[in-house]
Amino acid sequence: QKAAQNLKPIVPIKFHISSRTDTGVHALCNSAHLDIQRAPGKPAFNEKQLIYSLNYHLKPEPIRILNAYRVTSSFHARFSALSRTYIYRLLMGCSHYSEIPVFEKDLCWAPAGGYLNVPAMQDAAQFLLGTHDFSTFRSLNSETPFQSPVRTILQADIRPSSGFLSQHYHHRGLEFWELKFRSRSFLYRQVRRMVGALVAVGQGKLTPHHIKELLEIKDSRAFPSNAMAPPSGLFLKSVEY
């Protein structure tokens, strides 16, 4: 917003972002919309000018504008979204958090106990697909009374992944896995709770069928204590329109 104000608009600029994330969560890509009104007689910015100018003023910040598009006045970055895709990065093979590669610090989660039972996690993830009341899988906040707990999970995949520079420490037996979730929208901390429950399945603390039972209980207090995944492994991957 500060960078956009440097473009000398005649009306103060307000960014409308597609979605907010918890502290410690990352975004590979997010989207926002803004209206820029220039002084009379000045032409509208084109997409390339806008990207270059905003990035010039964002130099000291850990954020970059990747693309810009002209949209209709009815477009809204949050409410026009068809779906949002999150990925969660897990690291297996660490007996202690000190073994996490230094380049991966705060960019993944290495659950205690080393390796996880991935096939059991994949079976459990199938129960999350489709339309359900996800009350058990949300944390309570001020918006809870005004939000429907019903959401539709369009995708819930668990696949092997590569780590940053992982080819150079392959001999250490570390494995990266990605959990990918896609839905039109998610509840507060829903993805982190789903990941935590699936990891508990992978550790043998829950069975795949427990995921179905947790959904049916429809009570956030029924969620296993200390099972929520930390924010460090979560990334907003993309917002689809």
UniProtKB/TrEMBL annotation:
> Which EC class does it fall in?
isomerase
UniProt entry tagged with the keyword Aminoacyl-tRNA synthetase: no
Can the keyword tRNA processing be found in this entry's annotation?
A: yes
Q: Which reaction does it catalyse?
A: uridine(38/39/40) in tRNA = pseudouridine(38/39/40) in tRNA
Q: Which domain of life is it from?
A: Eukaryota
Assigned keywords, A-Z: Isomerase, tRNA processing
Q: Name one GO biological process term.
A: tRNA pseudouridine synthesis
One Pfam family from the record: PseudoU_synth_1
Which residues does UniProt mark as catalytic? 22 (nucleophile)
Catalytic activity, EC = 5.4.99.12
UniProt binding sites for substrate: 86
Q: Name one GO molecular function term.
A: RNA binding
| Residue stretches making up the Pseudouridine synthase I TruA alpha/beta domain | 124-241
Q: Which family does it belong to?
A: Belongs to the tRNA pseudouridine synthase TruA family.
Which protein is depicted?
A: tRNA pseudouridine synthase
